[in-house]
Amino acid sequence: MVGAWCFLDAYGPHDLAGSPGMRVGPHPHIGLQTVTWLLSGEVLHRDSLGNRQEIRPGQLNIMTAGSGISHSEETPAEHGPVLQGVQLWVALPDPDRHMPPAFAHHADLPVIREGGLTATVLMGTLAGATSPARCHTPLMAAEITLTAGTTTSIPVNPTFEYAILTLDGETTTAGTALKPGPLLYVGAGHSTLDLSAGPPTRVLLLGGEPFEEKLVMWWNFVARTSEEVVAAREAWNAAEHNAGAGPFGEVLGYDGPRIPAPPMPITTLVARGRVR
């Protein structure tokens, strides 16, 4: 974990020539926020609250599962030639994890420009710029673009822990060269983070106050006990033949099947905390 950030899926770039692109059928979530950010392409979001929202680069989708929600994600019929993006999960703290589900789309986010740096603040605050996205614990996320050869120092919160993912190009920070692929954990206690770009580079900066609650993460669920996960799984699969029943509702408009929950493991799931 990095603060309350508990999952990151970086995908693409995918060539969509002759392909329908992304097709993720209706599936459930509890206890988390999904955060979707695109570098190229388009994704159409539908959820059981009735939201239908197309997201494009420079825009942010945040779905707060709370006590339960379901959604689908797909490439729209008319789309660009390439799809690349990230989806992240934020673990909701115990006081908020049973809240009613919600959805927000932010098409206008704060942007910082200084020299060869351009930073879009997705969540939280960076260098005095604050995103309108709702956070339930102290955290931040920003996409940072560096022109070729740029070296810069970014002010950060020393009480947060941080990690950096290179999306395009190559950057060097804390003496480590970072190409797309691995996530570099740089820890806490920093007042600045130094970044140097070789070619033109884009990175994702994540940070947050260390999250001390223990979690059970299984399939699409973030919970605190194995029993909670079992109950959520049973509720989702039971609703297959009774559309809209249970805590997850129904996704309307997706042309395809819902995704059933897989079998539970033969052992009891154990809550685990962050280890550093």
From TrEMBL:
Instruction: Report the residue ranges that make up the Pirin C-terminal domain in this protein.
Output: 142-239
* UniProt key word Iron: yes
Q: How many cofactor units bind, and how? A: Binds 1 Fe cation per subunit.
Every Pirin N-terminal domain range: 2-90
Q: Which domain of life is it from?
A: Bacteria
Q: Which UniProt keywords apply?
A: Iron, Metal-binding
A Pfam family annotated for this chain is: Pirin
Q: Which family does it belong to?
A: Belongs to the pirin family.
**The protein's name in its UniProt record:** Pirin
Organism expressing this protein natively: Winogradskya consettensis
